[in-house]
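ERR on first pass: missing label on line 2. Operator R.T. fixed the label and resubmitted. Corrected input:
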Amino acid sequence: MSRESVRYDDAIVRRFVTATIVWGAVGMLVGLWCALQLAVPRLNFAPYFTFGRLRPLHTNAVIFAFAGNAIFAAVYYSSQRLLKARPLDRLSAIHFWGWQTIIAAAAITLPLGFTQGKEYAELEWPIDIAIAVVWVTFAVNFFAMVRNRREQHLYVALWFYIASIVTVAILHIFNNLVIPAGLFKSYSIYAGVEDAFMQWWYGHNAVAFVLTTPFLGLMYYFLPKAAERPVFSYRLSILHFWSLVFIYIWAGPHHLHYTALPQWASTLGMLFSVMLWMPSWGGMINGLLTLRGAWNRVAEDPVLKFFVVGLTFYGMATFEGPMLSIKSVNALSHYTDWNIAHVHGGALGWVGFMTFGMIYWLAPRLFQAPLHSKKLAITHFWIATIGIVLYVLAMWVSGITQGLMWRAFDDTGHLQYPDFLETVTRLVPMYWVRALGGALYITGLLLGAYNLFRTWQARPAAYAETDVEVPPMVRAARLAARERRAIEREAEPPVHWHRRWEGLPALFTALTAVAVIVASAFEIVPTFLIGDNVPRIKTVKPYTPLELYGRDIYLREGCYNCHSQMVRPFIDETVRYGQNGKPAEYSKPGEFVYDHPFQWGSKRTGPDLAREGGRRDELWHLRHLENPRSTSMGSVMPSYPHLLDNDIPWDVIQSRVDAMAMLNVPYDAQALAHADTLARQQAEQVAATLVGNGGPKGMAGKEVIALIAYLQRLGRDIQLAQDAQPDPKGVAQ
Amino acid sequence: MIRLSELVSALTPAQYAELSLVLFLLVFAGVLVRHGGKRRAAEHAACAQLPLADDAGGPR
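pass 2 clean. output:
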């Protein structure tokens, strides 16, 4: 057989590794700042650097910049060698610079308050389009390597990469379908329950196909390399792959237990989440047993240390995840810091440690110099491990404490902690421990960055590039065989169907896509098309133009990062959020039909706001927004003094009402023609009420008035339904 | 002509959930049948070696 040669492109891997470290440091430092803001509210600097605007920057930076760049580094290094093919240089450059530009755009627009208001999908539509273009560029580049490969069999790591590439594209496109109402303003085409369903189909699978499957691909390649022995069971890796691909996609609804989501969807999400435990642990065990006979090296090798602890955290996170998805556990854990503990166990332990292990293994190979200091790498490992343990323990204690305080009743049958604030101030010591844990983890990362910098400094004057001898392309060999057949009428040597099947990447990719699409369709289509899922409530009307703008401010300031809008059907919640001694109605699906996007939230650092309307007067809201400590001693909420200074931009209100009307929100002719006039009239009324409360004059044109109008509307429509029909059971029908 | 929503409404949501579980079990059984036996042990062992052989002829 003739031999050819190929020169691997390690320059692109070096770039992505560097970007991983740089953005990792940025994203985690922003995370540390957010952690400190919760302990010391003075660290919020309005309007650009408040918790509500910085927390999305932290999550996006860590997920898409730190983990994203690490994934690309892993894919480019390992795929070239597994496929014996080089990517297309121009596409690699577009991919790298395009992705870094997107991250920079996110870092600028999120503090400016440009957001879609959906967790991990905050970036506005122009950036979403750019993400789709760059992702397709990456996909074309990857599949070009597959097409030009010299290895017949696609190793299992490549399967995980293919599943990630295909699924992320599907998730990103469908969850980000919006109607633009300006260059950096849009509304989700989905509303309420449907939007929640789409969001957590996306959100959970972002965890699956950004933070799990690519890192499993990384693990199946780099762990055998570091351990210098093959994966323990290739057969188990196949089972691991297909089980994950098929199960993960169904699990999203576990993020919405006891909300207004239909029960069947919630139960389905729970069942599949529990089923996920088995393949996940199969993968973890497969990884750990790959080290059979090499455990003695773990004591000395920092790469293996990171991999072993990373896998252990994978096991812990994939045990904790299914456990949290069980409804009775979720009833306690949801909206608390327990979720934050779970997420960071996975992100810092699994994603972070697998990334660091890979980078320490790559560094001498990429920079063609010995690692500057093995001792420093091991120090990094220990500092980061202690950091994770402190972080996770603090959030476990905080989450369980708050969950128990919310539901506690005293001997007289009253809530033991009726003041929500009490359940927050109790957690502040844990917030300090969390910040300490995070600071230790970042210190480790900075030590690693220094170690890599010193290794890079010792690089040769010019990197040696060696041509690797490889067999001919599989595609060329196939063509040649076909021609031979035509000429000699000889049969091609029989290829086992299984080998043939797995050697056909197009078919394999299609099957993976089918698994994802079928599972998604089973989950999503009934929700959208079976009308009974969302019973309509007659008294629920669209937001007025002023309230709509107020809602936009609520999104812009990231209020959903700390406040839910979902009273769950628990006695402690209906009592806590009731008014005038009467329990509140728990939230119904029909209440949210005009909510583009939904704002149910996922964490309650502050109280739920679904029944906020009418609980307090306008002056209280104004003072609270200006300085929360003036009305609520000990509150950790940021101050928003700029809302009292900013003028309402009346000229944008009509375009926003028009965009909502395009989404079938039934605005009347007056709103469609004179939305700004209606908004001004309502603002005058709210401002007059404010003055009547003893508040300042001249506020009618200020943004705070719009936000107050929105907050005072929350929960009012369901109250009207309750008043009109005394039987509360009738409300939900 | 029958509407898509009418077609989808022919089953209740709970039946969709049950159907999805059956579908999953069938796929899982299929993967087990295909890869569960010892017939392909040699092939799997060869595949598992791919990461270790990928730098053959390379600089390091």
